[in-house]
Each structure stands twice: as C-alpha cells, then as structure tokens.
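Notes from hallway chat w/ T.B., transcribed later so I don't forget. T.B. wanted the structure written out for a chain they're using in a teaching module, and asked if we could keep both sequence and structure tokens in one place. Agreed to drop them here.
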Amino acid sequence: MTPEIAVILTDPAQRIIWVNEEFTQITGYTLSEVLGKKPSILQGPNSSRETIKRIRKGLKNQTPVKDEITNYRKNGEEYLCKLVIHPIFDLDQQLTNYIAFEVDGNVVTDESDISLLQLEDKYSSSSLKGVEEMKLYFELRDLMEKEALYLNSELTLRMVADKLNTNTKYLSQVVNHHAGINFQNFLNTYRIKAAKARICSDQYKNLTLYGIARQCGFRNKSTFYKVFKDIVGMTPRKYSHTCREKNEHL
C-alpha cells in the first residue's frame, strides 16, 4: 500500500495556500482551517526546539530541508512527522513558494523508497508554474493510487483528463513538468510497481510473468519485458529468481 504523503504549499512568507487530502487525513486539519497560517500550527510542547531551529535555518537560507519532528494532530495526538521542504524559484531565481512533503513516521518507518522524501527530488531545482498545476499533479497521483486506473490496459490520456476535468494538453504538460516523463511512462511506473509486487507474492505464483503483466495493464509481452528492464534494471525472470531467493532466506 502506498503511504499517505501530505503536501503543503506555502507562499514565500511560509503561509499555507494549499494542502492535499492526505494532509487532512494525517493531521485532521482541513484546508480552510490552515489557510493563511504557518505549518508551525502543527507543533506543540514536545516539538524539538533544535529541530525547529534547523528547519527555520534552512527556510531562511532558502535551501532544501530534510528532518523529522514531533507534530500534533487537530485532536491533540502526537505523531512523528518525517518531512522534506523545498524552496521553489521562478525563472528569475526569485523565491515564489515552499513545498513540503510529509509522512506520518508512526506509520512509515522507512521512507527510503519514497521519492518525494528524498532531497535529490526534482523539486529542489524546479520552478513551480502555478498552484493549479501543482494541485492537478497531485490529484492525478491520488487518482492513480486510489483507483489503480493504470491496471486498465485501455486507459488513455483523454480518459484520465476527463476524470480530472481538464484537457489532454494541460495534463500532458503537468506530467512532463512534475514527473519528468511522458504520460505513457508515467503509467508504466505504476504498472511495473504493481507487477513487482505480484511477482514476489505467492498469491500470483500460478500465473506466468506475462499473465501478471496483463493484470497490470500491459498488452504486449515484449513491451512489458523492455519497460521492466528499463525501470528495474533486470528482466522480470531475473527479478522473479531474486524474489524467490530472498523468500527462501526468510
């Protein structure tokens, strides 16, 4: 299961201008309740002063920050917040926003495979082309992860654009800008992730590799093998052997 990743977008003065649904699910606060306030609204008595100083220093210096801190939900419950904050600059290198990605450390113990929680993520050097574009990108991610649309081999850019009430040109630009790949490759990253999980699961051991590929949205065997090797760095068969060896050692 993909962990919930809260996204907080602020203006240069660190006032919140947008949060995603996952933020509300993790903290209990809705957008209307935090709009115009600073993320420090989540801090409380047990929030480390040293951590707060480190975060403030990074914000002041307009440099990316990765840290963890004790935060508080709306109901007063403490939770460990693992976060990454990126300053966002326009084409003239003027600060326009800060964007923060956060997970509940009580739920996510290892964030090493969550790309948004890595400092080398593209946001560290990317200009932000508007709040609406950012919203659309994360709405797209939510749609993919919650409804698993990528499992449909007939899925098209038009179908997804219609679900998000946008047009294909804008959606394609958003994917290219924020994911750094085209829409088809964007779908394939989800499909390969699903295929990897199935290959390593005993639940699907009765299926061939191509049978798993078809379940995950691939229609062509050779395409599946090529995309899998490009993304994973090995063939599906090699990956299957690797999974089997790991399972045998457990």
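Follow-up for T.B.: Residues 124-128 have pLDDT under 50 and may be disordered. Might be a good example for the class.
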